[in-house]
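Researcher: I need the complex structure. Ligand is FE2/S2 (inorganic) cluster. Inputs:
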Amino acid sequence: MTAADGARASVREDPAVPTVPRIVACPDGPIVVRGDVEIVDDRGRPVPRRRRTVALCRCGGTTIPPYCDGTHKANGFSTAGC
Amino acid sequence: MTATVPAGLRTGMARPQPRGPLGALVWGALDRRPDEVDEEVRAALVTAARTAVASGDLLADDDVQLTLFVLYELHYRGVAGVDDAWEWDADLLRARGVLEAAFEEALRDRVEVPADVAADGRSVADALFALTAPGPGPSVARYVGRRADDDQLHEFLVHRSVYQLKEADPHTWAIPRLAGHAKAALVEIQADEYGGGTPGRMHSELFARTMHGAGLDATFGAYVDRVPAVTLAGVNAMSLFGLHRRLRGAIAGHLAAFEMTSSLPNRLYGDGFRRHGYGTATTEYFDEHVEADAVHEQIAARDLAGGLAEHEPELLPDILFGAAACLYLDDLVGEHVLGAWERGESSLRPAAAAARRAG
Ligand code: FES
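Model: Output:
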């Protein structure tokens, strides 16, 4: 197997069925949530969700919690030690 | 039931005033049906295009950039009074090809592309995040957020209107040209751009509401006569990358860079309009982009650009070129606008000049 084949295989391993919710931990960034997941606040009230795929802040710096607003790029947030 | 398409979107863009001999010749041809235009005029189109690109700074050339903008519009929603058959007229395309070749060459000459990036998703995303990292220097976003007066806010919207009223369209050309992971990523982003199927949530319509909120005409192309070449060049680059399958790497990279430089500036744009007392209907476009583009940038960098580099590693240099070109052109517009504003001048072409040529 060549290196290029290996790279392609890693892409092919994605589950093909989108009905399973999928959470992607983005390096140095937010947590991207795809699929049917209920997002609620600490009292169980649904958080308004305006799009199918959302990014949840994990740097703590966002101005639109719980969603990411890109602030992690300006505040030096790093997931290197996570 | 009344039509749901806003009046300004029903017909093609109103034809702007030509800005030089090339535009005058092209408009003259477009006034007629293709089968009414003789060989002599057809040959002259190509000759005029060659002359227009022979000298000067193409990215700041009003005649070249406006002509390209109008020729590209034939592929989008058309130009009022221009026969649809012109879209695929071989001689007109040949003339456009002359402009495009010179435009692409100018961009490749001037845009610095990162080297030594490995063609795997993680490396490509890292390279793009490094390329688009927010800098400390002056920016239109910071100026709009903190200092711009009301006239400057209007100018800002006028510059933006030549793209944002058809937001996402140039990148949509790439969908049938991609496959697999990258295609799915692009569709995911574009579906959100087009409001997830709700017309009123389409980003182009949110921008129209912002323009209305500021008392501006939200008809596509209403202000093209006021917009300088450098702003048109930014939109033309998207059309160039989007309309050529050969450049599918560049349009993917362009979208990634565009999304990756959007969330933080849009917060500042919104601040600028709030500072002047505009309400949420006017700022919704910016607020929407703060949240949406923080999602899109992750998808665009990792799944679209990264996924494409993994599927088609030979496209990696163009992916990075498209991203760097997006940033380069954005900087040129920024320098132009901030330069004018710092001098206390308008960043737009004078209304009087446009009107005089119309007479
Ligand atoms: S993770 Fe993006 S703003 Fe916190």
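Model: Summary of the prediction. The domain at 20-82 of chain A is CATH 3.40.5 (Ribosomal Protein L9; domain 1).
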